[in-house]
Design brief:
It is built from no helices and 6 strands. By secondary structure, it is an all-beta fold. The protein has a domain of 81 residues: Elongation Factor Tu (Ef-tu), domain 3 (Beta Barrel).
Length: 119
């Protein structure tokens, strides 16, 4: 990022190995990871998530674009949370590969109960 912290983030491709450790710590949640090698027809998109309730592994969600418009159905493959992440979880979703360049978030159904919230 450099100084000031409001600078636009930039990737140093020669240092990136796709591990995703930068996803939960990036200011403004600007980083995500797209893996188009997951399977023949599906891609994995890993992105920051700061809402409650957290989705659960195996859940089918709506994959949305940058405007919040539904693009496709997606399946939650992994949910990673850690105290080191400072309240930002990383969710990984499987989408049809043809939508991997469009999906940048998820929307839970209105009736989703999720997990019990800690108070």
């Amino acid at each position: 990022m450099g100084k000031p912290i409001a600078n636009l983030p930039r990737i140093e491709e020669d240092k990136c190995n796709g591990c995703g450790l930068c996803i939960p710590v990036c200011p403004g949640m600007a980083i995500f990871n797209v893996d188009n090698t997951y399977s023949e027809n599906r891609a994995i998109i890993s992105l920051p998530y700061e809402y409650l309730p957290l989705p659960t592994k195996g859940l089918t969600v709506d994959g949305v674009d940058r405007k919040g418009e539904v693009v496709c159905k997606a399946k939650v493959i992994r949910v990673s949370s850690s105290p080191k992440y400072d309240h930002t979880s990383v969710i990984s979703i499987a989408t049809p590969k043809r939508y991997s360049s469009k999906v940048r978030g998820i929307k839970l159904g209105r009736d989703y109960k999720g997990v019990k919230l800690k108070r």
